Amino acid sequence: MICRPPSRYTLSLLLAATAMPLAAQDPAPPPLETVRNFQIVSDRLASSGQIGYDQIPLIAEQGYEVVINLAIADEARNGQEGFLVAQSGLSYVHIPVDWQQPKVGDVRKFLGVMEAYRDQKVYVHCFANMRASAFVYLYRTLSEGVSEEEARATMLAVWDPAEQGQWAKLIEDAKAELSGR
Fold first, then answer.
1. Which residues of the chain, if any, have pLDDT below 50?
2. Rounded CA gap, 96 and 23, in Å?
3. Host H or E run for residue 66
4. Tens-place pLDDT, residues 6-23
5. Which residues form the domain of 63?
6. Domain presence at residue 13
7. Phi first, then psi: what are they for 27, rounded to 5°?
8. Which pLDDT value is given to residue 19?
9. pLDDT at position 5
10. Number of domains in the chain
11. CATH number for the domain harbouring residue 66
12. Which whole-number Å values give the CA distances from 110 to 50, 101, 152, in the listed order?
């Protein structure tokens, strides 16, 4: 019996068939630490920029129970994110904050949500962690009693709201209106 070497076509089929299981596996999502401006603020609070859909299960795996989105309203993006967060067994709250005109009312809503979930591990995000870090700063100083210096240092690691007049004003107004809550 004479054995012939396999043809190129046969080799291609063989290689494709053996590679299929590898190609069918989903790659692991990038870790949360790769999200823009990711910060672990405390043992029950983290903030970041925009999370990827594939990173939502990682949020659940790390013990977070609530995701708060402060990015502007976008029906497709927020709807899909909210669905995937709920599908992962987490609570989802969206407070759309206008970058150009942030309002004390938005901060008031955020503080109320944080109060409602005070015993749970919360993940706050927006597009770049600028809105989120400012709101977290206000929450920590107004509701948790964290020192100005400590809370501001966490925010300044992301950005300085003093460089954006509307955000400096929001922080000043929120402190004036909400400090005696």
1. 1, 9-23
2. 38
3. strand 66-69
4. 555 444 444 444 444 444
5. 32-178
6. no
7. -70, 150
8. 46
9. 53
10. 1
11. 3.90.190.10
12. 18, 16, 18
Please enumerate in sequence order all residues whose Cβ is within 8 A of that of 78, keeping only pairs 6 or more positions apart, or say none: 69, 71, 94, 96
Phi, psi for residue 44 in degrees, rounded to 5: -130, 15
What pLDDT does 1 receive? 46
Evaluate whether residue 5 is within a structural domain: no
pLDDT of residue 86: 95
> What is the pLDDT at residue 11?
42
Q: Are 107 and 135 contacting, i.e. CB atoms less than 8 angstroms apart?
A: yes
Q: Distances in Å between the alpha carbon of 62 and those of 67, 116, 121, 127?
A: 12, 21, 9, 21
Instruction: Note whether residue 97 is domain-resident.
Output: yes
112 token code pair: 């109320």
pLDDT of residue 33: 79
Predicted TM-score (pTM) above 0.85:
no
Please name the residues in contact with 178: beta carbons below 8 A apart, sequence gap of 6 or more.
Answer: 104, 107, 108, 111, 138, 142
How far apart CA 99 and CA 134 sit, in angstroms, is 12
- pLDDT digits over 49-72, tens only? 999 999 999 999 999 999 999 999
Q: In one letter, which amino acid is 168?
A: A
**Is the residue at 3 inside a domain?**
no
